[in-house]
Design goal:
The structure holds two protein chains of two kinds.
Chain A lengths: L1 E6 L2 E6 L6 H7 L18 E4 L2 E4 L12 E3 L12 H8 L9 H14 L5 H7 L11 H15 L5
Parallel strand pairs in A: 1-5
Antiparallel strand pairs in A: 1-2, 3-4, 3-5
Chain B lengths: L19 H5 L15 E7 L5 E7 L1 H4 L4 E5 L30 E2 L5 E7 L2 H8 L3 E6 L6 H5 L22 E9 L2 H7 L2 E8 L3 E2 L7 E6 L5 E5 L4 H12 L6 E4 L16 H11 L3 E4 L2 H6 L3 E2 L2 E9 L5 E13 L5 H10 L10 E10 L5 E2 L6 H19 L3 H8 L8 H5 L16 H12 L1 H6 L7 E11 L10 E7 L5 E5 L8 H13 L6 E5 L16 H28 L7 E3 L2 E4 L2 E4 H10 L7 E6 L8 E11 L5 E11 L6 H20 L30 E5 L22 H13 L10 H10 L12
Parallel strand pairs in B: 1-13, 11-12, 14-18, 16-17, 21-22, 28-29
Antiparallel strand pairs in B: 1-5, 2-4, 2-6, 3-5, 7-17, 8-15, 9-14, 10-11, 10-13, 15-16, 19-27, 20-21, 20-26, 23-24, 24-25, 27-28
The chains are: A alpha+beta, B alpha+beta.
Amino acid sequence: MKIALTVDGTPRETVIDPGECVMDVLRRLGKTSVKNGCDRGDCGSCAVLLNGRAVNACLVFAAQVDGAEIRTVEGLEDAGGLHPLQFTALDGGAVQCGFCTPGMLMTALDLLTVAPDPTEAEVRRALAGSYCRCTGYVKPVAAILTAAALMREGRRG
Amino acid sequence: MAEDRAKFTVVGISERKVDGRALVTGKPVFAGDADVPGALHVALLTSPLAHARIRRIDTSATEGYPGVVCVLTHENTPTMRYTTAGQGHPEPSPYDTRMFDTKVRFVGDRVAAVAAESLAAARAAAALIAVDYEQLDPVLSIDAALAPGAPVIHDEDDSLDIWDPAHNIASVVAARAGDVARGLAESAAVVEVTVETQYAQHAPLEPHVVVTHLDPNGRIVILSSTQVPFHVRRIVARLLDLPIHRIRVIKPRLGGGFGVKQEVLIEDVAAIVTLRTGRPVRFEYTREQEFVSSRTRHPMRIRMRLGAGKDGTLHAVEMDAISNTGAYGAHALTVMSNTGSKTLPLYNRAPHVAFSGRVVYTNLPVAGAYRGYGGTQGSFALETAMDELADRLGIDAVVLRERNHIRTGETSPIFEELGEGRKGTPQVITSCALGECLRRGSERFGWAERRTRHPGDGPVRRGVGMSAHMQGSGIALIDMAAATVTMNDDGSFNLLTGSTDLGTGSDTVLAQIAAEVLGIGIDAVLVIAADTDLTPFDKGAYASSTTYVSGKAVEAAALAVRAQILAVAAGMLEARPEDLKIVGGHIEGPRGSVSLADIGRRSYYGPDPGQIAATASFVPEASPPPFMAAFAGVEVDVETGLIRVTDFLAAVDCGTAVNPLMTEGQVEGAVANGIGYALTEEMQFTARGRTRNPDLARYKIPGAVDLPPITVMLVDSYEPTGPMGAKSVAEIGINGPLPAIANAVHHAVGIRLTRPPFTPEKVWHELRKKSSVVSHQQESP
């Protein structure tokens, strides 16, 4: 079947197979920041915003997202530069291998949209489904809290 | 010299990762992101049986399946034995593996591979392969492997360097100094502890992935998620009977390795399909294959005996280890060697030391290199025994370590007796700040006060524990790294290094070292890394070697380039080179200055043009250990057996921290992995040897909510043989949590946990065995 969706602000139409998940479709559309770490919703590496909320793209059927709006980490940067979440991850040593980073940043963006001033515990809870094997989460959590402060002040970094 | 460090302007600064911007913006920089039109996809058929011979394999239905292009089995692939372990040559691991064998030795072993136009077709077609197996009795534990009359796992006659195949012994290691039996007999106190560690998996977020194609000249290009591109090239060349120069291996950004990508697991399959079909190929492990058909940490049973005088000075140390390498002996010998060599030199007071290790085959998933590399298992045994000794003698656990640890200027006979599966290299410690790590770590952690605090009488008991550790920096006199620095006509530089940044940030660290030498900012150094066509040889990323070994090669190449620049500048400025210095992109002399850009232009277009460039190699003569003191606080619920780690502190001596933020990150990540190893991570098997939990839901790695606050203290030291005082740091942090947490639990409730992971069930059973806990007993402070 054919679906139409908006990915990072760009309208796209694509033919999908029955049973195909959003992760595979997005990667086929060139959005390779959507990472396949487990293909079954355990690791969070494929998290994207679907109509504003974070989902594991490997767990959503492509057929379900006809007409939807999807944001990936590739759409965060704009003419003004890096998004605060990207800036603080880069600046705060929150990125090691970077494979989990896109999913983690989109998960964090979901949190900061509903809770602009989260506690550390809230950030950690939000990341419960976003595995990282490199960092021990110390610097990613700190970077997200810093990003939240920047965003509340309307700054980038 | 240490005094130079105050003058560093790039080293010691937390520069941003050179690849960081691409990573946070989600650019297609990983091997699996490569857009390869027309690529074939590979699916693997793996063994459903732990031990069986293949009588017959019928691929006719598969070959006729729509979209299938190539099917590989033992009937149409090379049969020479090799090892998948990506180590230097000659490889120390036994040649006991075939690409596809007539015998399968674990559930998950390779049986066949199918390449097809789509992954779905490849998978569907692979399922149609009919295999007639002759089932053999499986060997599913160390004891079963060593039992008289045990089934022989490697009964083939063409394997090489297996110690005793008839008795399932892959490798044997022994080393001794003095007379340990006498030493134990002479000791005022002797303690004995036996620990038994579990199957654990690395679980990098990026599973193994490879993309291959033929270049326009018919050479094969392998884009791989590997830690060892040059070893991949050498091993694949031999398997495919190709000259090494017909193969190009490129490692792009890598999504974590931790040792599991020091293994040639998928490149050979993709490459042979590309060779046979002329088509690009993409082959990616599923998460299940990443658990089952990949590599794991060697489970070990280690008996540790310590003898000491009344004051705690060690007199005799004996370590007796048996490891389970699974079906193949990848890293079997060397992990076992490191179990002793990365632990026993730590306490060099004892004149009598003995180490013996045996590595056995079983019909379980294959072990391999895993961050810590035997040192993790060995230091659990040693540090548990040290805790027991402290307890026995009534000496504070920190004080016992202070009395026994190796110091700057000292040596241990183990350095010479125990190397990488052979004799080692004598080594005098040239930097050791473990004393400071213990002192400052204790202070910050509040050790003295917390150690004497009452554990409580309620269901939740509190305790603290600690441990001390060493690792190494590369492999002395074996592993070489080379680097090339070339100057561009704008005064910037290209740094070509064969080293392999697995996500640790080592490309950035190497750029910082080059920039420091060349008197420029890191932005003026372009890193080109890990491409066997473009970059000089480097052993790869393992054994905590990149900062120390590759860093030293980079420093030497940059120094040579610097000398060339100063020679040119001396002519231009009419000064002697020794009177010149490079500051902020300019060469300043007594009578004027010239910019690096001027020199760069001149080197290209004259007068007297000539490329400014240098290549340097480095082979370390020693492997200077980083050191660490680890401290853990725990709460143990005596009703449920649940352990909660309340806080963890690691005080680390890694010499100069080239990039402090990234250095902390290495330790934080390693500690997190170690906490998972201590509390939750274990591959479990059915009675037939099938892995029960090959996914991230049932194999529990720590998430952000599962971890306590982790504090990392970088304790100042300077390694005179390292680049700008640096040692390496990647592995050591993972060794701390297991013993420190176990020792903290002992402090809290008096039970000695020896079989990780410390699940509530195990802890509860141990508590029930020790009735005194219910009526609570305070440990001696």
